[in-house]
Amino acid sequence: MCLHHKLFLICLLFFILTGCWDSHDIEELYMEIGAALDKPKTSTLRRNKEQNQIKLTLQNISPTQLPSESDQGNKKKKYQNLTGVGDSVLEIFREFSLKNDSPPYGQHLKVLVIGEELLKEKNLQILLSLFNRSLEVRDSCILLVAKGEAAKTLKISTDIPAFTLIGIGENESHSANLLPITTNGKATRSMANDENMAIQSVSTKNGKIKFNSAALIKGGVNRLVGYLDEDEVKGLNMLTGDIKGGILKGKDPKTKGLIAYNISSVKSSITPYIEGNHLSFDISIKSVGRLNEDGVHAGNAFSNKFIHRTELAIKEETERLLNQTLTRLQKQQKLDVAGFGEQVRIHYPKQWNHLKRNWDKYFSEASIKLNVSITVEDYMVKGKKEISQ
């Protein structure tokens, strides 16, 4: 049974058990599984209401659209997208109700994608509040930010785009450049505390989806202010220790050949120091992994010299990623999304009461020292080479 089929059955079972099926025949039910919020194009805006207009795209499925093995090769879409524009989410839902005899039911919503143009202008907290009140969305709903139009993510070339977004988003254990999942509940709690956030960003091209960056949300105003690229996402994950797997690539300092390091674990600690008016941090990153691949033509992976060179190469790459990320966050965006402020709050609670009022400024001026340790503990098949080096 495919992943899409399993996810649908889980949604369907919950729908039945919660008793929400008794007002319609089961075959007529439509479950909203994905949604996208965008800023409407100028041509679709209503006069004198440009500031309040929102474009909503809902993706739903019904039991009659359930994917099965017999559907393989069938080009008929297994989902339906509804699109509307209005002053509020509630107004758009009312329009949807006139087009469909089954009103939107958001408690099965799995993913919400917000377009960058809308998020640059609108407060995310207000957007989620409007959405949650109208559809009663669960805290477990996954949030994503789209580079470009969010609606395009619900039109990618897969059986059911919303399920594809969920599946890729949950693959963080296999990639170092995927952020931990941000849910509706997690974002709501962060915004209630005026915290900055980094949310996984996606883009579409030629009907395909790519998870390739992180959207930076400024606390308080809760708007999109910038992005981290793929390397900087890896660096951020290193800083927070939120890495469950993935590959780091380095160059052998002697032969310049490719070395691929498979991450097994990362431990990160951020220690603050306040001396007078001077704020500084010591960052310790310790990673253990295995040599997954190397481009060195001849070498003995069991050789201490080769292992040492491998660890040096990955350490150098890790430091590059960390420095690039810190430059982006500290000097360019001046935005702490890595938990530096939280460590100050823990270690210096009295000083934090003063610093927190303008924390991003103090963060941007702090000095930071890195200490990176890489340990290769496994050598894969390459370790069998016995040519001395």
List keywords for this structure.
disordered C terminus, globular, GMP Synthetase, Chain A, domain 3, 389 residues, four-stranded mixed beta sheet, alpha/beta, single chain, eight-stranded mixed beta sheet
Give an account of the 3D structure:
The protein is α/β, with parallel strands linked by helices and 389 residues long. It folds into 2 domains: 3-67 and 77-228, no CATH class; 236-384, GMP Synthetase, Chain A, domain 3. It has helices at residues 3-17, 89-99, 116-121, 124-135, 161-169, 184-192, 230-240, 304-333, 340-347, 349-355, 359-365, and strands at 31-38, 54-61, 80-86, 111-115, 142-146, 197-205, 208-218, 223-228, 247-251, 258-275, 278-294, 367-378. It has an 8-stranded mixed β-sheet, sandwiched between helices. A 4-stranded mixed β-sheet has the order 9-10-11-12, with helices on both faces. The termini are far apart.
Tertiary shape: globular
Largest sheet: 8 strands, mixed
What gap, in angstroms, lies between the N and C termini? 50 Å
Q: In which order are the strands of the major sheet placed? A: 3-2-1-4-5-6-7-8
Report the sheet-strand fraction: 25-35%
Q: From N to C, what is the helix and strand string?
A: HEEEHEHHEHHEEEHEEEHHHHE
Radius of gyration: 24 Å
Helix content: 25-40%
| Estimated structural class | alpha/beta
**Would you count the extended β strands for me?**
12
Q: How many helix segments? A: 11
Uncertain segments: 19-24, 381-389
Average pLDDT reading? 83
Organism: Shimazuella alba
Pfam family, one: Spore_GerAC
Keywords: Germination, Lipoprotein, Membrane, Palmitate, Signal
GO biological process, one term: spore germination
